[in-house]
Write a structure and sequence with these properties.
The chain has 160 residues and is mainly alpha-helical. 51% of the residues lie in helices and 2% in strands. The chain is built from 8 helices and 2 strands, in the order ααααβαααβα. The chain has a two-stranded parallel sheet. α4 packs parallel to α7 and α7 crosses α8. The radius of gyration is 19 Å and the shape is elongated. The two termini are 38 Å apart. The model has no long low-confidence stretch (mean pLDDT 87).
Length: 160
């Protein structure tokens, strides 16, 4: 850990090429930053709270619409229903960065397929490729999607 901290500090205070870093990560990253007082005082943290479908649905819909529109795509009605926004939020483990990553992957898949609109099946296909899960464990397909542990990869449902 000490060598990681020292490397970060040297990047931030290099005489010829000082840089500003954008570090993203899990709560463990805070531990690395807090490991050294000098490094901690050079960091300006911005933390994104976990997503909540009841509170963040409109913003998530806006984000999805913006990304699709910027890509020349439209969102199908099955995606823009407010009650269905809980699916991508759950699939992304309520993490903002992961939601963006999954949304972009879905849009890329739609473009590769040569289509002009994004539907819920595109999200399901992205999640299937990403996790290797069966449809019954896909939060974009399963009725009781909130019970699914989306952090498990290649889950064929043998243990459920």
């Amino acid at each position: 850990m000490k060598s990681v901290v020292n490397t970060l500090k040297s990047l931030l205070q290099h005489q010829a090429w000082p840089v500003g870093l954008i570090l993203t990560g899990t709560p463990e990253l805070k531990g690395i930053i807090n490991h050294d007082v000098q490094l901690a005082r050079r960091v300006f943290p911005i933390e994104f709270p976990r997503l909540n479908a009841a509170v963040d649905s409109e913003r998530v819909l806006g984000l999805l619409s913006h990304y699709a529109g910027a890509s020349g795509l439209e969102l199908r009605p099955d995606v823009i229903q407010r009650d269905l926004v809980a699916r991508p939020i759950h699939a992304a483990r309520r993490e903002f960065g992961l939601l963006i990553e999954m949304s972009i992957a879905t849009i890329e898949g739609t473009i590769r397929d040569g289509r002009t609109d994004v539907d819920l099946a595109d999200f399901a296909q992205m999640f299937r490729k990403r996790s290797g899960c069966i449809d019954g464990l896909n939060p974009f397909i399963a009725d009781d999607f909130e019970r699914i542990d989306v952090s498990r990869l290649l889950d064929a449902g043998e243990n459920d």
